[in-house]
Amino acid sequence: MSKMKRVVVIGGTGLIGSKAVKRLQDVGHEAVAASSRNGINAYTGEGLEAALTGADAVIDVSNMMSFDKDVISDFFGTSSRNLTTAEQAAGVRHHVALSIVNVDKLAANPYMAGKLAQEEAVASSGQAYTIVRATQFHEFIETLAGAYAADGVVKVPDIDFQPIAARDVAAALVEAALGEPKNGTLDLAGPERASFESLIRAFLDAKGDGSPVTADAGIDYFGAPVARGSLVPGGEYIKGQITIAQWLKA
């Protein structure tokens, strides 16, 4: 095993962050679960100096939900600037941020615009970094199915989908943080690529929901126009291991 490292996980109590903390601990490293709950706030800068002292790397999975582009861009941009500035002052070796596959092509969606602002803040900071761009999570499929449901029918965009389990996302973030900075982006996706329609159908079937599911090329993705490959990697990518069927059984 490599020398024990201290890794600060910003958003360390959330869906991905808590799994990243556990993964780090399981492989013998010190993990700090940093969140506003314990007085560490990347947006305001509160507690960052103390939290980052002695840290080798930072994994940023902090998050907020808003449909206001300016609000969410400010949150992600400001948080990233505060973090990378504090990291440089503390001598932190590596900043790892979680983003979304093809986020630069989906910025018509306010949330995607915010994540793009995050990427730009990190890349221009002067801090050594790796941005891990993931596809949508298995854990969000139910939310997606609900969002596209109306009048007993689920109508979804006619696109490919390649969701990934949160546990696989956490594992990839940890591997990136323990490795050398890429000063660029890595794509991450699940092991199965299929139509959005078929994956939503499989999920609903597993839940005993017989609602009809149809695909329509004219439907956007939460405000962003999409084509067949908009939500999946277009080149090389890291492949997760957990299939939807395995995740549903678990």
If you compute it from the alpha carbons, what radius of gyration comes out, rounded to the nearest whole angstrom? 18 Å
Low-confidence stretches: none
Which CATH architecture is right? Answer: 3-Layer(aba) Sandwich
Estimated share of beta-strand residues: 15-25%
Q: Write down the overall geometry.
A: globular
Report helical residue fraction.
25-40%
Task: Quickly give the structural class.
Answer: alpha/beta
CATH superfamily: NAD(P)-binding Rossmann-like Domain
Largest sheet: 7 strands, parallel
Number of helices: 8
- Overall average residue pLDDT: 96
Number of domains: 1
- Give the strand order, joined by hyphens, for the main sheet: 2-1-3-4-5-9-12
List the helices and strands in order: EHEHEHEHEHEEEHEEHEEH
Secondary structure tally: strands: 12
Distance between the termini: 29 Å
**CATH top level?**
Alpha Beta
